[in-house]
Design goal:
Length: 370
């Protein structure tokens, strides 16, 4: 007996505390864990910086549907074809009757809105901080996505220039040109590794001139004028703010990304079969069929339709052989199928009656006696 005094609690000894503690990690393992943590943080920072550093597209707004947009006049010579719209403001003269597969807007509210959108897009492209220099001659150069500055004139003297998207279909290329853009005859702008014409922009401080036979890609936004010489083909747009657009036997196909009209860009570029045929003709030198098929060097014709007995049969010709796809016969209605089955059922029963398993014996006529 201790007189009701509660026993004193003993404080745990240092030995028992040490027994309850988690064993310390070796120094090497601690270093390894810290290294993994730092590596993860570094990867996150690199990914974020690359996403933030990606060049945004240039929103064209209501100017996106136009193949040609001019300020003073539009003049044409020869069988020029444009797949988008043609616009003119404040001028009123369109001469030479180019073939416009879109709509024509001359000195009206649609043309005014498109010119205002062009001014906004031009200012946006001009104000972007450059990520590199375009030099003075594009010939033989290859560019990754970004904004490139040419403080004076920019020339594509011969051969081709390559725009490499590096696998990114949303890659954007912007060229800021202080004065003029000039391409030599039969030169080419090439797109590789997912690059799209709808994401290529040429902001030109005065005038752009495309040489004869040039295969050009992208949207030209010129402060003054644009001239496309004989048989130059453009997968993009020719947009001039104040002066004329001059055409001569050109083909201008549209270059619209999935969201380019709204200004966000990116996505998959869409083209009609006629545009695809025109692009193939321009880039390969083969023939073209505007009825939905294309011929490249006499090799393949797709989209041919043969009508026989009221049934349209698509066929594909490769070389000298022809493969015809025969369509299935039309499916009848429920009542027609039911009547057909009923006829087959009755015919089967009649056949059974007329074709017994054992043939009938000849009946003999017996003589009557009595």
């Amino acid at each position: 007996m201790n007189g009701g005094v509660p026993p004193k609690h003993k404080s745990p000894s240092s030995g028992s505390l040490a027994a309850n503690r988690r064993p310390a990690l070796p120094a090497g393992r601690k270093t390894f864990r810290v290294g993994l943590l730092l590596l993860g943080l570094l990867s996150s920072l690199l990914f974020a910086s690359s996403a933030l550093g990606a060049t945004a597209t240039v929103g064209l707004g209501s100017a996106a549907s136009f193949s040609v947009l001019a300020g003073s006049t539009v003049t044409n010579t020869g069988p020029t074809t444009m797949f988008g719209d043609l616009g003119l403001y404040p001028g009123t003269s369109v001469t030479g009757e180019p073939r416009v597969l879109g709509q024509t807007y001359v000195n009206d509210q649609v043309a005014v809105a498109a010119k205002n959108a062009l001014t906004t897009a031009y200012t946006d492209a001009e104000s972007r901080p450059p990520s590199g220099s375009a030099g003075t001659d594009l010939a033989g150069q290859s560019f990754s996505p970004g904004v490139y500055d040419a403080s004076k004139s920019l020339l594509l003297s011969s051969g081709s220039v390559t725009l490499n998207a590096e696998g990114d279909p949303n890659a954007v290329f912007i060229f800021q040109i202080g004065s003029t853009l000039i391409t030599g005859s039969n030169t080419t702008v090439s797109l590789v590794n997912g690059a799209q014409a709808c994401n290529v922009f040429w902001q030109v401080g005065s005038s752009a001139t495309l040489g004869s036979g040039t295969h050009f890609v992208g949207t030209i936004m010129a402060a003054a004028s644009v001239t496309a010489n004989t048989a130059a083909t453009i997968h993009g747009r020719l947009l001039a703010q104040t002066a004329a657009v001059t055409l001569e036997d050109n083909t201008i196909t549209t270059s619209n990304c999935a969201s380019s009209v709204g200004g966000s860009g990116g996505g998959t570029e869409t083209t009609t079969p006629e545009e695809t045929a025109a692009i193939e003709k321009a880039t390969t030198g083969g023939g073209a069929t505007s009825g939905g098929g294309s011929t490249t060097g006499g090799g393949t014709t797709a989209g041919t339709v043969t009508t026989t007995g009221g049934v349209s049969t698509p066929s594909t010709t490769v070389g000298s052989s022809t493969t015809t796809v025969t369509p299935r016969p039309p499916i009848g209605s429920k009542s027609t199928v039911k009547r057909s089955r009923h006829r087959h059922h009755r015919a089967g029963r009649t056949s059974k009656r007329r074709s017994p398993a054992h043939p009938a014996l000849r009946h003999r006529r017996a003589a009557f006696t009595g």
